[in-house]
Protein backbone atom coordinates (compact mmCIF):
# COMPACT_ATOMS: atom_id res chain seq x y z
CA UNK A 1 0.00 0.00 0.00
CA UNK A 2 1.40 3.43 -0.98
CA UNK A 3 1.95 6.28 1.49
CA UNK A 4 -1.07 8.10 0.08
CA UNK A 5 -3.27 5.03 0.42
CA UNK A 6 -2.15 4.56 4.03
CA UNK A 7 -2.86 8.22 4.71
CA UNK A 8 -6.33 7.86 3.20
CA UNK A 9 -7.01 4.87 5.43
CA UNK A 10 -6.10 6.93 8.51
CA UNK A 11 -8.21 9.85 7.32
CA UNK A 12 -11.21 7.56 6.92
CA UNK A 13 -10.71 6.10 10.37
CA UNK A 14 -10.49 9.59 11.92
CA UNK A 15 -13.58 10.76 10.04
CA UNK A 16 -15.60 7.77 11.19
CA UNK A 17 -14.62 8.48 14.79
CA UNK A 18 -15.33 12.24 14.63
CA UNK A 19 -18.41 12.28 12.40
CA UNK A 20 -20.11 9.22 13.86
CA UNK A 21 -21.01 5.94 12.20
CA UNK A 22 -24.32 7.16 10.78
CA UNK A 23 -22.98 10.22 8.97
CA UNK A 24 -19.86 8.38 7.88
CA UNK A 25 -21.73 5.40 6.42
CA UNK A 26 -24.25 7.58 4.55
CA UNK A 27 -21.96 10.28 3.16
CA UNK A 28 -18.26 9.65 3.69
CA UNK A 29 -17.82 5.91 3.20
CA UNK A 30 -18.61 6.14 -0.56
CA UNK A 31 -15.70 8.55 -1.13
CA UNK A 32 -12.95 6.93 -3.20
CA UNK A 33 -9.31 7.85 -3.61
CA UNK A 34 -8.57 8.44 -7.27
CA UNK A 35 -5.86 6.37 -8.95
CA UNK A 36 -2.36 7.68 -8.57
CA UNK A 37 0.06 8.63 -5.80
CA UNK A 38 0.01 12.43 -5.87
CA UNK A 39 0.78 13.51 -2.31
CA UNK A 40 0.53 17.22 -3.10
CA UNK A 41 -2.83 17.61 -4.86
CA UNK A 42 -5.04 14.78 -3.62
CA UNK A 43 -8.11 13.87 -5.67
CA UNK A 44 -11.18 12.15 -4.23
CA UNK A 45 -14.24 11.01 -6.18
CA UNK A 46 -17.87 10.11 -5.59
CA UNK A 47 -20.35 8.39 -7.85
CA UNK A 48 -22.99 11.15 -8.08
CA UNK A 49 -23.01 14.94 -8.43
CA UNK A 50 -25.46 15.21 -5.57
CA UNK A 51 -23.17 13.47 -3.08
CA UNK A 52 -20.18 15.37 -4.42
CA UNK A 53 -21.89 18.70 -3.76
CA UNK A 54 -22.93 17.62 -0.27
CA UNK A 55 -19.44 16.48 0.74
CA UNK A 56 -17.88 19.64 -0.70
CA UNK A 57 -20.36 21.75 1.23
CA UNK A 58 -19.91 20.02 4.58
CA UNK A 59 -16.51 18.29 4.67
CA UNK A 60 -14.12 19.88 2.16
CA UNK A 61 -12.13 21.70 4.84
CA UNK A 62 -12.20 18.78 7.25
CA UNK A 63 -10.76 16.47 4.58
CA UNK A 64 -7.96 18.94 3.84
CA UNK A 65 -7.11 19.25 7.54
CA UNK A 66 -7.15 15.48 8.03
CA UNK A 67 -4.82 14.84 5.08
CA UNK A 68 -2.41 17.55 6.21
CA UNK A 69 -2.32 16.05 9.69
CA UNK A 70 -1.05 12.79 8.17
CA UNK A 71 0.85 14.15 5.14
CA UNK A 72 1.99 17.76 5.83
CA UNK A 73 2.99 18.21 2.19
CA UNK A 74 -0.59 18.04 0.91
CA UNK A 75 -1.50 21.32 -0.77
CA UNK A 76 -5.11 20.74 -1.79
CA UNK A 77 -7.86 18.13 -1.79
CA UNK A 78 -10.19 18.06 -4.80
CA UNK A 79 -13.58 16.34 -4.62
CA UNK A 80 -15.04 15.41 -8.00
CA UNK A 81 -17.74 13.24 -9.52
CA UNK A 82 -16.22 10.14 -11.07
CA UNK A 83 -17.10 9.41 -14.71
CA UNK A 84 -19.52 6.53 -14.93
CA UNK A 85 -17.02 4.47 -16.93
CA UNK A 86 -14.29 5.00 -14.39
CA UNK A 87 -13.70 2.57 -11.57
CA UNK A 88 -11.76 4.45 -8.91
CA UNK A 89 -9.92 2.58 -6.22
CA UNK A 90 -12.04 2.25 -3.08
CA UNK A 91 -10.25 1.41 0.12
CA UNK A 92 -11.80 -0.35 3.06
CA UNK A 93 -10.81 1.34 6.28
CA UNK A 94 -8.67 -0.92 8.46
CA UNK A 95 -8.83 -1.03 12.21
CA UNK A 96 -8.70 2.54 13.57
CA UNK A 97 -5.17 3.86 13.88
CA UNK A 98 -4.31 5.70 17.06
CA UNK A 99 -4.55 9.41 16.41
CA UNK A 100 -5.26 12.57 18.27
CA UNK A 101 -8.99 13.11 18.77
CA UNK A 102 -10.50 15.80 16.60
CA UNK A 103 -13.49 17.99 17.22
CA UNK A 104 -16.80 16.98 15.70
CA UNK A 105 -17.24 18.67 12.31
CA UNK A 106 -19.77 21.42 11.77
CA UNK A 107 -22.54 20.54 9.33
CA UNK A 108 -23.16 24.20 8.49
CA UNK A 109 -21.06 25.76 5.71
CA UNK A 110 -19.14 28.73 7.01
CA UNK A 111 -15.85 30.59 6.52
CA UNK A 112 -13.27 28.18 5.16
CA UNK A 113 -10.27 30.47 4.84
CA UNK A 114 -8.75 29.42 8.14
CA UNK A 115 -6.33 27.31 6.06
CA UNK A 116 -4.29 28.43 3.11
CA UNK A 117 -2.72 27.00 -0.02
CA UNK A 118 0.75 27.78 -1.28
CA UNK A 119 0.73 28.76 -4.95
CA UNK A 120 3.59 27.70 -7.28
CA UNK A 121 4.99 31.24 -7.08
CA UNK A 122 5.24 30.90 -3.29
CA UNK A 123 2.44 33.40 -2.56
CA UNK A 124 -0.01 32.35 0.11
CA UNK A 125 -3.59 32.02 -1.15
CA UNK A 126 -6.79 31.78 0.88
CA UNK A 127 -8.60 28.46 0.61
CA UNK A 128 -11.76 29.82 -0.98
CA UNK A 129 -15.00 27.93 -1.44
CA UNK A 130 -15.43 27.57 -5.23
CA UNK A 131 -19.22 27.71 -4.88
CA UNK A 132 -19.27 31.16 -3.28
CA UNK A 133 -18.95 33.44 -6.30
CA UNK A 134 -20.86 36.47 -7.55
CA UNK A 135 -22.44 34.33 -10.27
CA UNK A 136 -24.09 32.08 -7.67
CA UNK A 137 -25.27 34.90 -5.42
CA UNK A 138 -29.05 35.24 -5.75
CA UNK A 139 -30.05 38.89 -5.57
CA UNK A 140 -33.20 40.82 -4.72
CA UNK A 141 -33.87 44.26 -3.11
CA UNK A 142 -32.86 42.97 0.34
CA UNK A 143 -29.23 42.39 -0.69
CA UNK A 144 -28.80 44.32 -3.95
CA UNK A 145 -26.83 47.22 -2.43
CA UNK A 146 -24.51 44.81 -0.63
CA UNK A 147 -23.86 42.90 -3.87
CA UNK A 148 -23.15 46.07 -5.86
CA UNK A 149 -20.82 47.38 -3.15
CA UNK A 150 -18.96 44.06 -3.03
CA UNK A 151 -18.53 44.01 -6.81
CA UNK A 152 -17.31 47.61 -6.80
CA UNK A 153 -14.69 46.90 -4.15
CA UNK A 154 -13.43 43.84 -6.02
CA UNK A 155 -13.20 45.68 -9.35
CA UNK A 156 -9.78 46.71 -10.68
CA UNK A 157 -8.63 50.29 -10.51
CA UNK A 158 -8.48 52.84 -7.72
CA UNK A 159 -10.15 51.92 -4.43
CA UNK A 160 -13.47 53.78 -4.31
CA UNK A 161 -14.16 53.06 -0.64
CA UNK A 162 -12.46 51.07 2.06
CA UNK A 163 -13.29 49.56 4.43
CA UNK A 164 -16.54 47.96 3.32
CA UNK A 165 -18.59 46.86 6.34
CA UNK A 166 -21.31 44.28 5.68
CA UNK A 167 -23.77 43.39 8.41
CA UNK A 168 -26.83 41.17 8.60
CA UNK A 169 -28.29 38.16 10.35
CA UNK A 170 -26.76 34.70 10.33
CA UNK A 171 -26.98 32.91 7.00
CA UNK A 172 -28.04 35.92 4.92
CA UNK A 173 -25.04 35.93 2.53
CA UNK A 174 -22.23 37.87 4.21
CA UNK A 175 -19.70 35.04 4.00
CA UNK A 176 -20.77 34.33 0.43
CA UNK A 177 -19.94 37.92 -0.54
CA UNK A 178 -16.55 37.81 1.22
CA UNK A 179 -15.54 34.74 -0.77
CA UNK A 180 -16.95 36.24 -3.97
CA UNK A 181 -14.91 39.42 -3.48
CA UNK A 182 -11.75 37.37 -2.99
CA UNK A 183 -12.49 35.24 -6.08
CA UNK A 184 -13.07 38.29 -8.29
CA UNK A 185 -10.09 40.24 -6.96
CA UNK A 186 -7.71 37.32 -7.48
CA UNK A 187 -9.07 36.80 -10.98
CA UNK A 188 -8.18 40.41 -11.79
CA UNK A 189 -4.92 40.44 -9.79
CA UNK A 190 -3.43 36.90 -9.82
CA UNK A 191 -0.29 37.98 -7.95
CA UNK A 192 -2.12 39.87 -5.21
CA UNK A 193 -1.83 38.93 -1.56
CA UNK A 194 -5.30 38.13 -0.20
CA UNK A 195 -6.33 36.87 3.23
CA UNK A 196 -9.80 35.85 4.40
CA UNK A 197 -10.30 34.71 7.98
CA UNK A 198 -12.78 35.00 10.79
CA UNK A 199 -12.20 37.37 13.69
CA UNK A 200 -11.99 34.32 15.92
CA UNK A 201 -9.19 32.93 13.73
CA UNK A 202 -7.48 36.34 13.79
CA UNK A 203 -7.51 36.18 17.60
CA UNK A 204 -6.31 32.56 17.71
CA UNK A 205 -3.37 33.16 15.37
CA UNK A 206 -2.37 36.38 17.14
CA UNK A 207 -2.35 34.68 20.54
CA UNK A 208 -0.36 31.78 19.08
CA UNK A 209 2.15 34.26 17.62
CA UNK A 210 2.56 35.96 21.01
CA UNK A 211 3.17 32.65 22.74
CA UNK A 212 5.74 31.76 20.09
CA UNK A 213 7.30 35.24 20.43
CA UNK A 214 6.81 35.74 16.70
CA UNK A 215 4.27 38.55 16.42
CA UNK A 216 6.40 40.30 13.78
CA UNK A 217 5.70 37.57 11.21
CA UNK A 218 1.99 37.64 12.03
CA UNK A 219 1.80 41.42 11.62
CA UNK A 220 3.78 41.39 8.39
CA UNK A 221 1.57 38.66 6.97
CA UNK A 222 -1.66 40.58 7.53
CA UNK A 223 -0.48 44.12 6.92
CA UNK A 224 1.17 43.12 3.67
CA UNK A 225 -2.19 42.12 2.16
CA UNK A 226 -3.62 43.84 -0.89
CA UNK A 227 -7.06 42.62 0.22
CA UNK A 228 -7.93 41.64 3.78
CA UNK A 229 -11.35 40.18 4.61
CA UNK A 230 -12.46 39.58 8.21
CA UNK A 231 -15.66 37.71 9.01
CA UNK A 232 -17.72 37.72 12.24
CA UNK A 233 -16.12 40.78 13.80
CA UNK A 234 -18.45 40.48 16.82
CA UNK A 235 -16.26 37.68 18.19
CA UNK A 236 -13.46 40.05 19.21
CA UNK A 237 -15.79 41.99 21.53
CA UNK A 238 -14.21 42.33 24.95
CA UNK A 239 -10.82 40.96 23.80
CA UNK A 240 -8.68 44.03 24.55
CA UNK A 241 -5.28 42.75 23.40
CA UNK A 242 -6.73 41.34 20.18
CA UNK A 243 -8.63 44.55 19.51
CA UNK A 244 -5.44 46.58 19.90
CA UNK A 245 -3.69 44.50 17.23
CA UNK A 246 -6.79 44.58 15.02
CA UNK A 247 -6.91 48.38 15.27
CA UNK A 248 -3.30 48.75 14.15
CA UNK A 249 -3.85 46.26 11.32
CA UNK A 250 -6.86 48.24 10.09
CA UNK A 251 -4.86 51.46 10.30
CA UNK A 252 -1.99 50.02 8.27
CA UNK A 253 -4.27 48.62 5.57
CA UNK A 254 -6.20 51.86 5.22
CA UNK A 255 -3.09 54.07 5.29
CA UNK A 256 -1.57 52.02 2.48
CA UNK A 257 -4.71 52.45 0.36
CA UNK A 258 -5.39 48.71 0.36
CA UNK A 259 -8.79 47.03 0.37
CA UNK A 260 -10.46 45.97 3.62
CA UNK A 261 -13.79 44.17 4.05
CA UNK A 262 -15.38 43.46 7.44
CA UNK A 263 -18.54 41.45 8.14
CA UNK A 264 -20.54 41.19 11.37
CA UNK A 265 -23.99 40.18 12.53
CA UNK A 266 -24.98 43.75 13.47
CA UNK A 267 -24.25 47.36 12.61
CA UNK A 268 -21.00 48.91 13.95
CA UNK A 269 -22.81 51.11 16.49
CA UNK A 270 -24.45 48.00 17.97
CA UNK A 271 -21.22 46.06 18.52
CA UNK A 272 -21.00 46.20 22.30
CA UNK A 273 -17.53 45.52 23.64
CA UNK A 274 -15.70 46.75 20.52
CA UNK A 275 -13.48 49.77 21.08
CA UNK A 276 -14.75 53.14 19.86
CA UNK A 277 -11.55 53.81 17.90
CA UNK A 278 -12.12 50.64 15.84
CA UNK A 279 -15.74 51.57 15.18
CA UNK A 280 -14.60 55.04 14.15
CA UNK A 281 -12.24 53.60 11.53
CA UNK A 282 -14.94 51.28 10.19
CA UNK A 283 -17.45 54.12 10.00
CA UNK A 284 -15.12 56.03 7.68
CA UNK A 285 -15.87 53.56 4.90
CA UNK A 286 -19.12 52.22 3.49
CA UNK A 287 -21.56 50.38 5.77
CA UNK A 288 -24.21 48.21 4.08
CA UNK A 289 -26.85 46.03 5.68
CA UNK A 290 -28.28 42.80 4.29
CA UNK A 291 -31.91 42.66 5.29
CA UNK A 292 -33.79 39.43 6.11
CA UNK A 293 -34.63 37.46 3.00
CA UNK A 294 -38.03 37.79 1.38
CA UNK A 295 -40.14 34.77 0.35
CA UNK A 296 -39.31 35.58 -3.27
CA UNK A 297 -35.57 35.50 -2.60
CA UNK A 298 -35.80 32.23 -0.69
CA UNK A 299 -37.79 30.69 -3.54
CA UNK A 300 -35.25 31.93 -6.08
CA UNK A 301 -32.38 30.45 -4.05
CA UNK A 302 -34.08 27.06 -4.00
CA UNK A 303 -34.76 27.23 -7.73
CA UNK A 304 -31.07 28.01 -8.38
CA UNK A 305 -29.87 25.12 -6.23
CA UNK A 306 -32.24 22.69 -7.96
CA UNK A 307 -31.08 23.92 -11.37
CA UNK A 308 -27.49 23.16 -10.35
CA UNK A 309 -28.35 19.54 -9.52
CA UNK A 310 -30.22 18.27 -12.60
CA UNK A 311 -30.43 14.74 -11.22
CA UNK A 312 -32.74 15.96 -8.43
CA UNK A 313 -36.46 16.63 -8.96
CA UNK A 314 -38.41 18.58 -6.34
CA UNK A 315 -42.03 19.63 -6.96
CA UNK A 316 -42.82 23.34 -6.93
CA UNK A 317 -45.20 22.95 -4.00
CA UNK A 318 -42.37 21.55 -1.85
CA UNK A 319 -40.11 24.47 -2.78
CA UNK A 320 -42.96 26.85 -1.90
CA UNK A 321 -43.34 25.17 1.48
CA UNK A 322 -39.63 25.55 2.28
CA UNK A 323 -39.52 29.17 1.11
CA UNK A 324 -42.55 30.12 3.20
CA UNK A 325 -41.64 28.24 6.37
CA UNK A 326 -37.82 28.30 6.64
CA UNK A 327 -37.31 32.01 7.18
CA UNK A 328 -34.40 32.35 9.59
CA UNK A 329 -31.48 32.04 7.16
CA UNK A 330 -30.59 31.09 3.60
CA UNK A 331 -28.06 28.62 4.98
CA UNK A 332 -30.73 26.79 6.95
CA UNK A 333 -33.02 26.89 3.94
CA UNK A 334 -30.40 25.17 1.79
CA UNK A 335 -29.86 22.68 4.60
CA UNK A 336 -33.58 21.84 4.61
CA UNK A 337 -33.48 21.24 0.85
CA UNK A 338 -30.44 19.00 1.25
CA UNK A 339 -32.18 17.04 3.98
CA UNK A 340 -35.29 16.42 1.87
CA UNK A 341 -33.35 15.35 -1.23
CA UNK A 342 -30.93 13.22 0.80
CA UNK A 343 -33.71 11.37 2.63
CA UNK A 344 -35.47 10.74 -0.67
CA UNK A 345 -32.29 9.30 -2.16
CA UNK A 346 -31.55 7.14 0.89
CA UNK A 347 -35.09 5.77 1.23
CA UNK A 348 -36.02 5.58 -2.45
CA UNK A 349 -39.24 7.53 -1.84
CA UNK A 350 -40.57 10.18 -4.23
CA UNK A 351 -40.48 13.78 -3.02
CA UNK A 352 -43.91 15.28 -2.46
CA UNK A 353 -45.52 17.61 0.07
CA UNK A 354 -46.32 14.84 2.55
CA UNK A 355 -42.77 13.43 2.37
CA UNK A 356 -41.20 16.89 2.87
CA UNK A 357 -43.48 17.68 5.80
CA UNK A 358 -42.67 14.39 7.48
CA UNK A 359 -38.93 14.70 6.85
CA UNK A 360 -38.74 18.28 8.13
CA UNK A 361 -41.30 17.92 10.91
CA UNK A 362 -39.22 19.33 13.78
CA UNK A 363 -37.66 22.03 11.61
CA UNK A 364 -41.01 23.22 10.27
CA UNK A 365 -42.61 23.24 13.70
CA UNK A 366 -39.70 25.24 15.05
CA UNK A 367 -40.23 27.90 12.40
CA UNK A 368 -44.00 27.97 12.54
CA UNK A 369 -45.33 31.11 14.13
CA UNK A 370 -48.74 30.76 15.74
CA UNK A 371 -51.08 32.86 13.63
CA UNK A 372 -54.73 33.51 14.54
CA UNK A 373 -57.69 34.35 12.34
CA UNK A 374 -58.13 37.60 14.27
CA UNK A 375 -54.59 38.62 13.33
CA UNK A 376 -55.23 37.76 9.70
CA UNK A 377 -58.44 39.78 9.60
CA UNK A 378 -56.80 42.78 11.23
CA UNK A 379 -53.85 42.75 8.83
CA UNK A 380 -56.05 42.27 5.75
CA UNK A 381 -58.21 45.23 6.81
CA UNK A 382 -55.13 47.41 7.24
CA UNK A 383 -53.70 46.32 3.89
CA UNK A 384 -56.91 46.97 1.93
CA UNK A 385 -58.07 49.91 4.10
CA UNK A 386 -61.28 48.23 5.21
CA UNK A 387 -63.20 48.21 8.47
CA UNK A 388 -63.22 44.98 10.51
CA UNK A 389 -67.00 44.72 10.06
CA UNK A 390 -66.57 44.59 6.28
CA UNK A 391 -65.01 41.11 6.38
CA UNK A 392 -67.91 39.63 8.34
CA UNK A 393 -70.65 41.55 6.57
CA UNK A 394 -72.87 40.35 3.72
CA UNK A 395 -71.44 42.91 1.27
CA UNK A 396 -70.48 41.36 -2.08
CA UNK A 397 -68.76 44.30 -3.74
CA UNK A 398 -65.40 43.22 -5.17
CA UNK A 399 -63.55 45.77 -3.02
CA UNK A 400 -64.77 43.80 0.00
CA UNK A 401 -65.31 40.27 -1.37
CA UNK A 402 -61.77 39.84 -2.72
CA UNK A 403 -60.02 40.83 0.55
CA UNK A 404 -62.46 38.55 2.40
CA UNK A 405 -61.48 35.64 0.15
CA UNK A 406 -57.80 36.41 0.69
CA UNK A 407 -58.35 36.43 4.46
CA UNK A 408 -60.11 33.05 4.25
CA UNK A 409 -57.31 31.67 2.09
CA UNK A 410 -54.67 32.82 4.59
CA UNK A 411 -56.71 31.41 7.46
CA UNK A 412 -56.71 28.02 5.76
CA UNK A 413 -52.99 28.17 4.92
CA UNK A 414 -51.62 29.57 8.17
CA UNK A 415 -53.88 28.26 10.92
CA UNK A 416 -55.03 24.84 12.05
CA UNK A 417 -58.68 25.87 12.21
CA UNK A 418 -61.22 23.72 10.38
CA UNK A 419 -63.28 25.02 7.47
CA UNK A 420 -66.46 25.40 9.58
CA UNK A 421 -64.49 27.31 12.23
CA UNK A 422 -63.07 29.65 9.60
CA UNK A 423 -66.54 30.19 8.15
CA UNK A 424 -67.95 31.11 11.56
CA UNK A 425 -65.21 33.74 12.03
CA UNK A 426 -66.33 35.40 8.77
CA UNK A 427 -69.91 36.16 9.70
CA UNK A 428 -71.19 32.61 10.10
CA UNK A 429 -70.52 31.53 6.52
CA UNK A 430 -70.77 27.91 5.39
CA UNK A 431 -67.63 25.79 4.94
CA UNK A 432 -68.36 25.54 1.21
CA UNK A 433 -67.92 29.32 0.99
CA UNK A 434 -64.45 28.97 2.51
CA UNK A 435 -63.57 26.21 0.03
CA UNK A 436 -64.69 28.41 -2.85
CA UNK A 437 -62.62 31.33 -1.53
CA UNK A 438 -59.49 29.20 -1.16
CA UNK A 439 -59.79 27.75 -4.66
CA UNK A 440 -60.52 31.16 -6.17
CA UNK A 441 -57.42 32.76 -4.63
CA UNK A 442 -55.27 29.82 -5.72
CA UNK A 443 -56.48 30.38 -9.30
CA UNK A 444 -55.95 34.14 -9.13
CA UNK A 445 -52.40 33.77 -7.81
CA UNK A 446 -51.50 32.21 -11.15
CA UNK A 447 -53.19 34.84 -13.27
CA UNK A 448 -53.54 38.06 -11.25
CA UNK A 449 -50.25 39.66 -10.27
CA UNK A 450 -51.84 42.09 -7.80
CA UNK A 451 -53.58 39.31 -5.89
CA UNK A 452 -50.43 37.20 -5.81
CA UNK A 453 -48.37 40.14 -4.57
CA UNK A 454 -50.89 40.98 -1.87
CA UNK A 455 -50.88 37.37 -0.64
CA UNK A 456 -47.08 37.30 -0.58
CA UNK A 457 -46.87 40.53 1.40
CA UNK A 458 -49.52 39.51 3.90
CA UNK A 459 -48.05 36.05 4.35
CA UNK A 460 -44.62 37.48 4.96
CA UNK A 461 -45.93 39.89 7.60
CA UNK A 462 -47.92 37.19 9.35
CA UNK A 463 -45.03 34.75 9.44
CA UNK A 464 -42.58 37.35 10.66
> Strand sequence of the main sheet, in spatial order?
7-8-9-6-10
CATH architecture of the largest domain: 3-Layer(aba) Sandwich
**Assembly type:** single chain
CATH class of the largest domain: Alpha Beta
What is the averaged pLDDT score? 82
Instruction: Tally the beta strands.
Output: 10
Domain module count:
4
Task: Tell me, briefly, the overall form.
Answer: globular
Global structural class:
alpha/beta
- The share of residues in extended strands comes to 5-15%
Q: What name is given to the CATH topology of the largest domain?
A: Rossmann fold
Helix content bin: 40-55%
Largest sheet: 5 strands, parallel
Distance between the termini: 58 Å
**Global Rg:** 26 Å
Number of H/I helices: 20
What does this structure look like?
The structure is a single chain. This protein has 464 residues and is an alpha/beta fold. It is built from 20 helices and ten strands. Helix 8 (240-255) links the parallel strand 8 and strand 9. Helix 4 (144-154) packs parallel to helix 5 (174-188), helix 15 packs antiparallel against helix 17 (398-414) and helix 18 packs across helix 19. The longest helix is centred in the N-terminal third of the chain and has 22 residues, at 49-70.
Sequence-ordered SSE layout with sheet pairings:
Elements lengths: L2 H17 L1 H8 L3 E2 L7 E6 L2 H22 L5 E6 L34 E3 L5 E3 L17 H11 L9 E5 L5 H15 L5 E5 H13 L3 H9 L3 E5 L8 H16 L3 E6 L11 H8 L2 E5 L4 H13 L8 H10 L4 H18 L5 H7 L1 H7 L5 H12 L3 H5 L5 H17 L4 H7 L5 H17 L1 H14 L2
Parallel strand pairs: 2-3, 6-9, 6-10, 7-8, 8-9
Antiparallel strand pairs: 1-2, 4-5
Amino acid sequence: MSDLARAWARVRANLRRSAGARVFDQWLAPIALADGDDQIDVRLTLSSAFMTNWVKSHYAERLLHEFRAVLPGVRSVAIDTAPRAAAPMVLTAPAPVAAKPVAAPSTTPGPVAASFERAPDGVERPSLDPRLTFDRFVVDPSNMVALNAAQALAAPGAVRFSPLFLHGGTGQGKTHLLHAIAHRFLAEHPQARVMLLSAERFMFEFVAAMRARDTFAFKARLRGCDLLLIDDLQFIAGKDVTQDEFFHTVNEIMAAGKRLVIAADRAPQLLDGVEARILGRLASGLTVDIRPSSPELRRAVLARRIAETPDVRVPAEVLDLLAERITSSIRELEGALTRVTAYAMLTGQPIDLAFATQTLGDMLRGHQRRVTIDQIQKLVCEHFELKPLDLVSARRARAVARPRQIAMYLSKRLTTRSLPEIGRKFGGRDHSTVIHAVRRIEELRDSDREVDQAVHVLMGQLQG
